[in-house]
User: Fold this.
Amino acid sequence: MIRSSIELNRLQALYADALSRQRPRILVCAGTGCIASGALEVFSAITTLVKERGDPVDVELLAEDPDRHGIGVVITGCRGLCVQGPLVETQPDNLLYVKVKVSDTPDIVEATIAGETVERLLYEKDGRRYPNARDIPFYRYQKPLTLANCGHINAESLPECITRGGYQGLAKALTMTPAQVIDMIEGSGLRGRGGAGFPTGRKWRSCSVQPEEIKYIVCNGDEGDPGAFMNRSLLEADPHRVLEGMLIGAYAIGARQGYIYVRAEYPLAVTRLRRAINDAKQEGLIGDGILGSDFSCQIDIAEGAGAFVCGEETAMMAAMAGRRGMPRRRPPFPAISGLLGKPTIINNVETLAHVPGIILNGIDWFRSFGTPTNPGTKTFALAGKVNNTGLVEIPLGLTIRELIFDIGGGIEGGKAFKAVQIGGPSGGCLPETHLDYGIDYESLTSAGAIMGSGGLVVLNEDDCMVETARYFMKFTQNESCGKCVPCREGTKRMLEILTRITTGYGREEDIDLLEEVAATVKDGSLCALGKTAPNPVLTTLRYFRDEYIAHICERKCPARVCPPLISYYIVPDKCKACMICLRKCPVEAITGGKKEVHVIDQDKCDRCGVCLSVCPEKFGAVECIPGRLNNGGEK
Amino acid sequence: MSGTITIDQKQLPINGEDNLLELIRKASVDLPAFCYHFELSDFGACRMCIVEEEKMGFIASCSTPPADGMVIRTTTPRLQRMRRTILELLLADHDRDCTICERSGQCRLQELTLRFGIDNIRFGKDIEALPRDELSASLVRDPNKCVLCGNCVRNCSEIQGIGVLDFAYRGARVRVMPAFGKSLAEVECVGCGQCIQACPTAALTIKFEIDSVWAALSDPHKRVIVQTAPAVRVALGEEFAGKAGAISTGKMVAALRRLGFHEVYDTCFAADLTAMEETAEFLHRFEKGENLPQFTSCCPAWVKYAEHFHSELLDQLSTCRSPHQMLGALLKKFYAREQGLSPQDIFVVSVMPCTAKKFEAKRPEFTTEGSPDVDAVISTHELARMIREMGIVFEELEDDSYDLPFGFASGAGTIFGYSGGVSTAVIRTAIYKLSGKRPAVDFAFTPVEGFPNVNETIVPVGDGAIRIATVHTLGAAKKLIAALRTGELSYHLVEVMACPGGCISGGGQPLISDAQARHERAQGMRGADKLQQIRAPQDNLFIKEVYQRWLEQPGSDVAHRTLHTGYTSRRRVFGQFIPVVAAERPVVDIKVCVGTSCHLRGSYGVIQELAALIEKQQLTDRVNLEATFCLEQCDRGPSVVIDGHLLEGVSEERLPAIFEEMVVKNLV
Assistant:
């Protein structure tokens, strides 16, 4: 039991010393991305190899025996550069090995013990090898505040967390009055990282002044945007940081009970959180009289059943109370009447993860990142057609260009950038002209997108913007709770129109109709899910209207994505009459024979693209072109 | 909240209105809405009532409290476009066969479509029709007509405290339905029909029985007898543009005659009979101090509710059948014979304000020689439909009067139609029985603080007093029952009416849109009571005659057989069994509970072991084995029932011995 901040400091020193004797230390990233590419196999291979030289040791073991030394093999949470996984880092030299296979593990273990480097496994870009992760461009421009521990500690070890200052923010907060804590959060300018960007301190203040005896703090971990994994990664990699943030928040507003609402589809996050809560309870960091103060707080997990709308705070509270997850009107805001009718603060995972750092390091430190109105950092899940897909944390105000090209390493396959979809299904698609926009709440909103929780999908010349809008509309429509008419029926009809357009049945009046329905859904919906649902459609209409017109008036998909609006064509001069495509065509639409140039019957062709994919690269005879060809080759 | 607010450039004071919509409607602007209902919580789902506030922008007026200084515009080009789009969106998803729709002419969606002049739907039509639920005896649910305003959902849970309906699924697939998409007949729906009253469209309608009535009327071998409930007379006129609460008894009787009913009787007569029986029963219990408080039983929705949710109270329910069932029983059991007819020869129709009575009339215990005591129950609304179909100009009918003997009632019988009526009738009878006096004025009921819809009165008798409470709406009853259990409240007699204000607001009544009509109907009932020459049941000569001829005296054996009934628990709605071993010639019947508690205690293993034993001893043709849900012994499971004998805590080890003892031996 840690009964005082002195005890906490003593433990920090003790564990830090122990950690320094864990040499060498091999960290295997086991974020979901790395696990998918084989990190667990790599981990067990390394463990087996190390065991041949004696059992690996952990921090607890080393802390018990000050004379002991040994090798450590540690599983960590996500360290961001998912595209290069599985990632292995070795200490003390901080060498980062990428795309590690089981067959590479003997070399890694040998070299690490010998203090050498396995050159071939280092990250390489533009002919340069980067031994140290810090120098890799992907990491160089980042400012990991909430992700500071991610990938560097064993996510399931409270002692490792304590070595890196875990719970020091809480210890400091407990020496302050709740009002001082709120002043500090307010002064830091921290804004809600769930998407809307409401000032966190102001939210806390409005709850703290409520006279009610019972209050709650809820951590919103219902991350549901397609392609977003910021919160999951953070919870998996450093759960104690979020718990610490919650405890500080609870202390500030006067809550004695906190709940983490986390998606049940995040089993690893749930497991790690459960473990972290148990460990913290065991050490008295959660429970009665925390760190010897008279502040008591419990934290429990509420597992969500996977409804996107439950990320909306009023729907979430309904779900937590056992009711159907449907939003209700606000006011009253949860800070006044929330969970079970009690004043409740609901903060996003990332917002709470910022809190310990602010308390510990001060307002000025936090404000040294980001811009004056958008201080601090924000995590993003980089996805789509970008080279470095993965998890990043950047200071706000960084431009979209810097994020995509410097950190993200540019567009996959050297293709042309087309748009970036920021903010998930509630966000918008921004074109090239917006690349130099700073990433902050106001700029993104003015451009028609939103900050959102941090989903960021990069689109290139091969992406159809109408299809992209349709994809997101399908998502929102499926996830609408169905309560209010504009959202339920409006998204359904917008999806209907978009589907019509992408399947070649678009009508001239469809664009006007889309805009009309979009306006009703935006203005009329009950909650933010509906109010923002038209954003992908509105931004694509705003920036890529030509593509809509091409689909509707020319029956053409310029990006060659929508099957009914494209054609496959065999260039007679290039065709070597090899019969491959002819045999593979599933609908027997290709005619010709040996020494007879092949021709696609456009009426039979169902545009599956098999011919293009099987035509030998050296011939390159099959082309995909926008629009529909008639037999005979005319458009 | 006080202060002023500007609505369309007009200043209005705030006078404690809960929401802007109320205030706007007071400003003579009929702001459209589907999901706003005057006695339900705000929901804010249809978005038709959105207005523009200077600073706040678009706000749903139904769910925004008025605040001093607000500047509201109720109609702007953007608002108009939004409302039209919302309507168009709703219509696109709606079964638009208005010509053959039950609600045509009374449908909110239809009304607003006309008002906004929507004449073109630019969206696709959903081709697949969802199945209608017509299994319930009381109502029909048609999801194709539902606009998902949630009024029924909130009505059932907030007013009635039941919650039979709720939302299911997400996105465009959202539906309102009972749990697991079951029929209303398979869940704990009590059939009160309040959801029909709250529904703005035809998604919930009365289950019509008109066809069977027309068929009987045209059958030369049937004598068709009709009775009309007290509350019908104060509401039927509304169907013909009459004022709410206006008494139209005379015209109604005339119309019934024109429709071809052979005899027209008044359920108020039967209500007098109920008062006699129920008073006798109550005084008996009161003297003995047993099964108190006595709960009234004339409301079939309440009776079904008690059977579903309060099986522990069933002994306290009055055993009296509801008035129209009493009259039905008299007609079939005695009157038919006297007329030289068999029960099958007469067809009894009850005209009721109620949809739950439709279910009640189909209870198997309410039959005589296999013939239902009441053959058909039609609602006030259905009667109006029949009158219209026949082309009868209701307003121009000459008043007519009921047939005798069952058409004469005291004032006490008349007031059964509103909350407090039954109690008042019982008090009038009880006081006469106890003191021989007729009180000049009725005991006044006063509201019970902290218990909405509950009123009480104390009637002094001898040294003591009879404490009586009346409650309307089942949600309020639920709360009252909880208070009775804790001892916070204590009564000897509790009158329960399921519908707000009593039968006057029954599910089968003409639709009302505000509380005013309800008030006027109650006033009408009180007026009808005053018009009667006699006020107390025991003074009704025809009641006396009925006792002399057929029933001896209140509470006699014959009265019991004819006019009383019993109740069964419906805690488990549907006893669906899952066959495990289906014997062809079953001699022994075994049921094993697979409810959650029993399952956790190993009932699956018990089933498997039993099936193995049956198989081993080659008894598959003679021993029936079924899995069943909950035998109500959750803490002592696994529970097994063998030929009606309940065994608790049955373990697999004990099974061979039990099987030998209770199955094999019985087969020898």
About this structure: The domain at 564-626 of chain A is CATH 3.30.70.20 (Alpha-Beta Plaits). The first strand of chain A starts at residue 22 and ends at 29.
